Amino acid sequence: MNDSSNSKLGSSDKLLLAALHLIAEKGYNGVTTLEIATAAGLSEKTLFRHFGTKQKLLEAAFDRYHYAEEMKKLFAEKLVWDLERDLLLVCTTYHEIMNRNRKMIQISLKEDEGQLPGFRARTQKHPQQLLEILTNYFIEMSEKGKIVTTNPELHAFTFIMMHFGAFMNDLDAQKSYPGITLAPFVQESIQLFARALRP
Amino acid sequence: MNDSSNSKLGSSDKLLLAALHLIAEKGYNGVTTLEIATAAGLSEKTLFRHFGTKQKLLEAAFDRYHYAEEMKKLFAEKLVWDLERDLLLVCTTYHEIMNRNRKMIQISLKEDEGQLPGFRARTQKHPQQLLEILTNYFIEMSEKGKIVTTNPELHAFTFIMMHFGAFMNDLDAQKSYPGITLAPFVQESIQLFARALRP
DNA sequence: AAAAAGACTGTCAGTACTTACTGTCATGCG
DNA sequence: CGCATGACAGTAAGTACTGACAGTCTTTTT
């Protein structure tokens, strides 16, 4: 259940995962190096031997575990120009990536930019790419006559905001809206767009 | 420009505002009592004379500046059963309230529940109420034959998630999507729903 | 009007605790 | 042997919080 219980990992990875987990939960200033080391099942001394400072530990964790593949590759050859199918692909891919970077996103939210140079830029890279891709998709779908869209970028933005909102709502352990799960929401959001954009 | 530059405020309010502002920006553990007092233009000693402890200062700030009026009152007698008009009212009211509680929401996001008992519950109160109101609204509109909705609660949730996402995106000073402003987005989101739910 | 009282604040010195980080030496392990 | 680690002690800095005293300004009293 706990990240650090995996005994197959090397010491560095145990520390990185424990750091990521605890900092995401309690914030950088809310966790001590002793806490992190203990959670990793190691001594504090080992932590400093590996990473020198607490800052470098966090930076190393970000570098090691931030998923950074290009969004465009994820959609290459996969779009079939059927609105509902393609939107489902976009949705699932979006939520998958956001969930993979969940801890990093939580950290970026909690800490201010001054102390985490460049971290926020990285967490925002995927959403920005996706907006571009989805905008172009709407434009092309419109040219094919399969949908009507007056403002493709705004439509793409709206679609992404829906799912960004749902993701952020889910990020919080103590959810704002219990009783609503992701899958039906995804389905509904797609049908909504399909009906609204239908020629 | 700065909160604490308003010389008409009493010392307590200067401290509360400075605390709210700084804690929202750098987190509870990221700010010192000396910093807060200095930002308020007062001495650290005065801070402790007024509030005793740092915790109580934050709690007092939350109590004093959290906007807590019942959502239902805000919509009483104001809904006219015209979808586009009513959704616009819901949108603007939602964004207004969320913005009014912006600092409190930022703090709730940064700090974990263990140290801020009950804070998160208060920031989540408005969204939950709104979901209820909007769900009932969709049900009634459906009964009036003005819209078709297969799952009113999910539709309401979807609508709110769109705007929650937009708000969260805007919360960040370093926005993910520059060049997109709120007003056109609100307009588009309403038209989207109007088209999708039209009988 | 003058004096006295009271409320509020600043300065400064200081305490107690936490915490990032280091040094030294011993131990286990291939 | 060589390498990684742990146990332990310790340092230096930061920080929440306190106490003592003095200054200022307003209000009250004479």
Give an overview of the whole structure.
The structure is a homodimer of 199-residue chains. Chain A is mainly α and 199 residues long. Chain A folds into two domains: 3-65, Arc Repressor Mutant, subunit A; 71-197, no CATH class. The first copy, chain A, has eleven helices and no strands. Chain A has helices spanning 11-26, 33-39, 44-51, 54-65, 71-75, 83-100, 102-110, 119-123, 125-143, 152-171, 182-197. In chain A, helix 1 (11-26) crosses helix 2 (33-39) and helix 1 (11-26) packs across helix 7 (102-110). Chain A binds a DNA duplex (30 and 30 nucleotides) through helix 3.
Count the E strands of chain A: 0
Count of helices of chain A? 11
The structural domain count of chain A equals 2
Range of strand content of chain A? under 5%
> How is the quaternary structure best described?
homodimer
Helix content of chain A: 55-70%
**End-to-end Cα distance of chain A:** 49 Å
Secondary-structure element order of chain A, as H and E?
Answer: HHHHHHHHHHH
Computed Rg of chain A: 20 Å
Low-pLDDT runs of 5+ residues of chain A are 1-5
Strand count, sense and barrel status of the largest sheet of chain A are: none
Overall geometry of chain A comes to elongated
- Most extensive chain contact? A-B, 46 and 46 residues
SS class of chain A: mainly alpha
Mean pLDDT of chain A: 92
